[in-house]
Amino acid sequence: xxxxxVRLLADAAxxxxxxxxxxxxxxAGCTVQRHPLEEAQHLPPRLLAGCTVLALAAPPAAxxxxxxxxxxxxxxxxRGRAGGFALITGDAATQPExxxxxxxxxxxxxxxxxxxxxxxxxxxxxxxxxxxxxLLPELDGPEPELALTPAARxxxxxxxxxxxxxxxxxxRLVVRQPGQLGSLAWAPQEPTEAARLGAQEVxxxxxxxxxNFRDLMWAQGLLPEEALLLGxxxxxxxxxxxxVVEQAGPQSGFAPGDAVFGFAPAALASxxxxxxxxxxxxxxxxxxxxxxxxxxAFLTAVYALEECARLRPGETVLVHGxxxxxxxxxxxxx
Length: 334
Hints:
The chain is of the alpha/beta class and 334 residues long. The protein has helices spanning 15-27, 64-78, 96-111, 128-135, 213-219, 226-229, 288-291, 295-308, 325-333, and strands at residues 6-10, 32-36, 52-56, 84-89, 117-122, 145-148, 153-154, 171-175, 184-188, 201-209, 240-248, 259-263, 271-275, 279-281. Helix 1 (15-27) packs across helix 4 and helix 8 (295-308) crosses helix 9.
């Protein structure tokens, strides 16, 4: 159970579970103060200082908008003050209102990392007393998101899979039928002979590749092939990557073993062949995965703002889409 004092807020529909949880917390030696969730927007932030905040919500559809606003206000008040925050909802798999609350919880966890906001979904088949007993050890636990059912404790996990294994040797990702994501597959790559390498070309073993909206649109058949023909990467999947030079042309300025990042056609592959002018050495402290996200977004932003717009101190930039890669890069450049 939480080591800090607890502020427990619950809506009317969650009252039985809130009462059972309050009793379990008292029995475990916790100091608990309970409030209706409707008071969240008027609760003085000082009351949340150093507390673990528990919000229980299971609103009907008509009250969902108000509940979302109350949870947001509570998170704002707890931000930078509370020692922890747990949002406890119903079964997101079967209850749309619970799914909406879970979605809000994920947004708040991203935007307010200092809250350490945890999301716990309770199956409706769990009796209040059992739900309280199951909740108690989870309130300060390590899992950011959980679902408790009568038969299981479920935590989301990202596991590799979804694509067939790489072919022996090297492979590159291809979409065999544009518009059908199920047709994504690995195609074998022929080794590049050093004798056929251009004087300013390099072959790179890819450690990480960036995924761009262009790739998604091409794989879904939303871009005609002629729209990509004149581009640097052509009608292929992937255009930015980071990795290690395996072969280098005599005028490339690179040598085998160099860690690099930059642009390459068909970059979603084991190995790529690209022009030396399209890559740069990896700066110290920048890992392969982070470096693979830099070229498209930042070169676009730097070229647009510094080269085309000739941006100077004191000027103002309007970024229409500030949440995407290029928009985020433009904010940093500006």
